[in-house]
């Protein structure tokens, strides 16, 4: 990893309540990876941050807690209809996140409750919609971009192409579910990670399947 890793603080600024909320929230963010997400957000230094893939708010607690500490804001983009693997009958479907009336995935009420219960509503803004649509209207420069949305090749590359142009020159790019070995998981986030390296990003830190990069 590069010397840029020195910019990431060793310590977390999460309160006990934040840690409890992150632990309790439904989602797909192991704690050690969440802590690196949080520490990278502290290093990003108080500007606007954006995540793609808010789901039930787990990663947003780690990032939002840093925003509260540093005075920034997190925009959390998600259509809240779930990715392919979250749909009813699929491997990563949580029946508690399926609306009983419509039979559709709806993670928005869970996201909202997580953020409300953590007291992070002043630092975390839910942007409900498809990420390419949001990206096509986005104008705000970002200090940190966290990509954890759809994991098809098309979706993951669209997220990268849509939002990386809005990342500050020295901004932080974080990509989740990066598995170099296909036996460990889908390859689209890994391909996006390789694309980022080819396009001038450098590895700063890693934890599990989370990669932290910077130009
Ligand atoms: C892996 S989950 C995110 C997990 C979350 N970061 C956590 O900490 O638990 C992926 C999320 O991306 C969302 N998603 C997938 N494709 C999307 C798209 N094109 N636009 C917006 N959201 C999308 C899904 O609705 C789902 O909630």
Quickly describe the structure:
Helices cover 35% and strands 20% of the residues.
Explain how this protein is built:
- The mean pLDDT is 95.
- The protein has seven helices and seven strands, in the order H-H-E-H-E-H-E-H-E-H-E-H-E-E.
- With 215 residues, it is α/β, with parallel strands linked by helices.
- It has a seven-stranded mixed sheet, sandwiched between helices.
- The chain binds S-adenosylmethionine.
- S-adenosylmethionine binds next to helix 3 and strand 2.
Radius of gyration: 16 Å
The portion of residues forming beta strands comes to 15-25%
Total number of helical segments? Answer: 7
CATH class: Alpha Beta
Low-confidence stretches: none
The CATH architecture category equals 3-Layer(aba) Sandwich
Distance between the termini: 13 Å
SSE order: HHEHEHEHEHEHEE
The largest pleated sheet is described as:
7 strands, mixed
**Helix vs. strand class:** alpha/beta
**Ligands and ions found:** S-adenosylmethionine
Secondary structure layout plus pairing:
Elements: H1 16-24, H2 31-44, E1 48-52, H3 58-70, E2 73-78, H4 108-117, E3 124-128, H5 131-137, E4 142-147, H6 153-163, E5 167-175, H7 188-198, E6 202-207, E7 210-214
Parallel strand pairs: 1-2, 1-4, 2-3, 4-5
Antiparallel strand pairs: 5-7, 6-7
S-adenosylmethionine binds next to helix 3 and strand 2.
């Amino acid at each position: 990893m590069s010397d840029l890793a020195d910019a990431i603080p060793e310590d977390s600024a999460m309160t006990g309540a934040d840690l409890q909320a992150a632990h309790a929230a439904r989602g797909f963010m192991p704690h050690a990876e969440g802590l690196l997400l949080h520490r990278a957000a502290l290093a990003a230094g108080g500007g606007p941050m954006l995540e793609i893939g808010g789901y039930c708010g787990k990663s947003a607690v780690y990032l939002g807690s840093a925003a509260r500490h540093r005075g920034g804001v997190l925009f959390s983009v998600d259509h809240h209809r779930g990715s392919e693997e979250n749909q009813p009958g699929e491997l990563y479907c949580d029946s508690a996140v399926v609306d009983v009336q419509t039979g559709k995935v709806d993670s928005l009420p869970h996201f909202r409750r997580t953020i409300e219960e953590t007291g992070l509503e002043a630092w975390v803004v839910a942007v409900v919609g498809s990420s390419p649509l949001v990206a096509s209207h986005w104008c705000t420069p970002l200090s940190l971009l966290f990509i954890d949305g759809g994991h098809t090749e098309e979706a993951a590359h669209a997220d990268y192409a849509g939002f990386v142009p809005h990342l500050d020159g020295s901004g932080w790019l974080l990509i989740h579910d990066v598995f170099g070995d296909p036996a460990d998981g889908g390859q689209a986030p890994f391909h996006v990670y390789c694309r980022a390296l080819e396009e001038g990003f450098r590895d700063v830190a890693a934890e599990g399947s989370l990669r932290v990069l910077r130009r």
